[in-house]
Amino acid sequence: MAAYSTGCTGVAVTKRGRTLTEQISYCFGYSISRQKARLTLLARIGRATVLNCRLRPMSSPSTTGPEDLRVVSVVPILRMFDVAATIRFYIDYLGCSLDWQAGEGDRPIYLQVSRDGMTLHLSSHHDDGTPGTAVLVEVRNIDALHTELHQRGYPFFNPGIGPGPGNVREMQLIDPASNRIRFYEPAPTG
Q1: Is 37 helix (H, G, I), strand (E, B) or coil?
Q2: Residues 64-93: what's their mean pLDDT?
Q3: How many CA atoms lie within 13 A of 138 on its CB side?
Q4: pLDDT tens-digit profile of 170-188?
Q5: Which pLDDT belongs to residue 21?
Q6: What is the C-alpha separation between 116 and 103, in angstroms, rounded?
Q7: 165-175 b/e (C-beta count within 10 Å ≥ 16 → b)
Q8: Is the dihedral of CA 136, 190, 140, 150 positive or negative?
Q9: Which of 71, 106, 138, 148 has its CA 20 to 30 A from that of 19?
Q10: In terms of C-beta distances under 8 Å and separation of at least 24 residues, what long-range contacts does 150-159 make, across chains too?
Q11: What's the mean pLDDT in 105-110?
Q12: How many CB atoms neighbour CB 77 within 10 A?
């Protein structure tokens, strides 16, 4: 978080127009004194840390007005190298649909695939994603998905279902760029 001085008043203001004290309170859910915020700013120019501050719980922020933020979805960006192999894996084997594709030929390719509630972005841009990234996907009836994938006869992978952390059943797939898609089904409750 970058901070700026408003002049001789000694009040630091962040890029969002909040004082440093308000920004720390907003980010961490705790209020601190103005003096502690100033000392923090002096100790770490441009970075608000609250390591040595006395913290007091604060009421939750208002849900109306400009601070009304809702996370709608999270879409991971996975790295890919071979576009044809990636499309064969996600479309032909996994049963996703290709929603859109940007780029073609020798240029970097960026595409979106989806299936039911799962949406993934795949990119050949050099700074997008890291090979070997893991993505967790919760499913209902993992046995049906397992059977469906075995019937497709993908020659490069034959996944099984096993126990996962937290008493779940898990099936892990590895795409052509070594990204891991972990399908899991939570244990029944009750």
Answers
A1: helix
A2: 88
A3: 4
A4: 999 999 999 999 999 998 8
A5: 56
A6: 25
A7: eeebbbbbbbb
A8: positive
A9: 71
A10: 152/92, 152/93, 152/95, 154/89, 154/92, 154/93, 157/93
A11: 92
A12: 16
Count CA atoms closer than 13 A to 184's CA, side-chain side. Answer: 18
* CA 125/CA 122 separation, integer angstroms: 9
97 token code pair = 């649909």
Residue 19 corresponds to which tokens in the numbers above? 């004082």
The pair of structure tokens assigned to 116 is 């039911």
The one-letter amino acid at 2? A
Could you tell me the two tokens for 65? Answer: 């007005």
Q: Of 96, 81, 183, give the one whose Cα is nearest residue 132.
A: 81
- Report how far residue 149's alpha carbon sits from residue 95's, in angstroms, rounded to the nearest whole number: 9
Ordered by where they begin, the domains of the chain are 3-65 (no CATH), 77-185 (3.10.180.10)
- Six token digits for residue 94: 């996994």
